[in-house]
From TrEMBL:
It comes from Flavobacterium sangjuense. It holds the Pfam family HHH. It catalyses: Hydrolyzes free adenine bases from 7,8-dihydro-8-oxoguanine:adenine mismatched double-stranded DNA, leaving an apurinic site. This is Adenine DNA glycosylase. Adenine glycosylase active on G-A mispairs. MutY also corrects error-prone DNA synthesis past GO lesions which are due to the oxidatively damaged form of guanine: 7,8-dihydro-8-oxoguanine (8-oxo-dGTP). InterPro entries: A/G_AdeGlyc_MutY, DNA_glycosylase, HhH-GPD_domain, HhH_base_excis_C, HhH_motif, MIG/MutY, MutY_C, NUDIX_hydrolase-like_dom_sf.
Length: 346
């Protein structure tokens, strides 16, 4: 069976109508690829539409304030993508006069663009004969060709890339790369793929050997740490609160939050209450403390699970650097904090 030909035929009949597929503009292709890293299309599409409306060109994105970029990104997660997106836009706009590099090797010199994204832009925008290898591609190739190499191993990327290169039909990199990614997203899905209605059900080695559920092989598991966050939502006599930017490296860099009391282990509400009463976040006298959620909100990140509680704290007088709730809500927050703001204030 001619794998590339059958795959492309399947794609042309089954592909989703997505806005970044309507042209070969490297800006919108780049934007979509960065947004869809670690993100499903259904979740990423509304963000893509909002971004292209607010920043229709790379110059618009480059000239935007980082906080405006992060605010639009709010809820999409992996915020380093947004920060790198903004930095790369500046590099393209101000150093390259708004012109994206036109080759895979030149694209790799841009900040935040690795081999996969460079391959996607080079093949989708310029039809350069380079492969793309992401999770979908690993899955399709490992199943169809019965490749048992651990995709988390050191040599896996090279092996799968070489296989993808061998399959690339010359002059059709654009179609083939989009086809194999779409096939992995719609047909050869991670769990319970519909192999009975698959165009490759007569030639897929994993199906023949009853190994579909075993492939691809991935042995490494990310170690997940647990953290315990208590956010202190201060409110003064003028109903103003205080927020601050997270400037330290790590999660949510450059997003905003309420004053944070983090503990190494899960503490009782009484213990947290005592810690709050003995804290010195503000100089104002504390009048009342109320726990907003007795059950901690578990917010799962790729390598951390956060258990979050919000405490409403009324204080006497006027808070230094206090801000009204409406103004505060316009800043970019981690989505778990913004959901609290939306519920309590908006």
């Amino acid at each position: 069976m001619n794998f590339p030909k059958v795959l492309i035929q399947w794609y042309l009949q089954n592909k989703r109508d997505l806005p970044w597929r309507n042209d070969t503009n490297p800006y919108t292709i780049w934007l979509s690829e960065i947004m869809l890293q670690q993100t499903r299309v259904a979740q990423g599409l509304p963000y893509f539409l909002r971004f292209t409306e607010s920043f229709p060109t790379v110059f618009d994105l480059a000239n935007a304030d980082e906080e405006d970029v992060l605010k639009l990104w709010q809820g999409l997660g992996y915020y380093s993508r947004a920060r790198n997106l903004h930095k790369t836009a500046k590099q393209i706009a101000f150093e390259l006069n708004g012109e994206f590099p036109k080759t895979y090797s030149a694209l790799l010199h841009l900040k935040g663009i690795g081999e996969y994204t460079a391959g996607a832009i080079a093949s989708f925008a310029y039809n350069e004969n380079v492969p793309v290898v992401d999770g979908n591609v690993y899955r399709v190739l490992s199943r169809y060709f019965d490749v048992e190499t651990d995709i988390a191993s050191a040599g896996a990327k090279k092996e799968f890339t070489q296989l993808a290169v061998a399959l690339l039909p010359k002059g059709q990199a654009n179609l083939f790369n989009q086809a194999i990614m779409e096939f992995g997203a719609l047909q050869c899905v991670p769990k319970n793929p519909d192999c009975g209605n698959c165009v490759f059900n007569g030639s897929c080695l994993a199906l023949q050997k009853k190994k579909v559920t075993q492939l691809p092989v991935k042995s490494k598991k990310t170690k997940v740490s647990k953290r315990y966050f208590n956010y202190l939502v201060f409110s003064d006599e003028h109903n103003k609160t205080i927020i601050s930017k997270r400037t330290q490296k790590g999660i949510w860099h450059n997003l905003y939050e309420f004053p944070l009391l983090e503990t190494e282990t899960a503490e009782s509400d009484i213990a947290i209450l005592e810690l709050i009463q003995n804290q010195n976040f503000v100089k104002n006298q504390i009048l009342e403390i109320q726990l907003c959620n007795s059950e901690g909100i578990v917010h799962k990140l790729s390598h951390q699970h956060l258990t979050i509680k919000f405490w409403q704290i009324k204080v006497a007088g006027t808070l230094d650097s206090g801000m009204d709730c409406e103004s505060a809500s316009k800043f970019p927050f981690p989505i778990v904090i913004y959901n609290f703001i939306e519920k309590e204030w908006l």
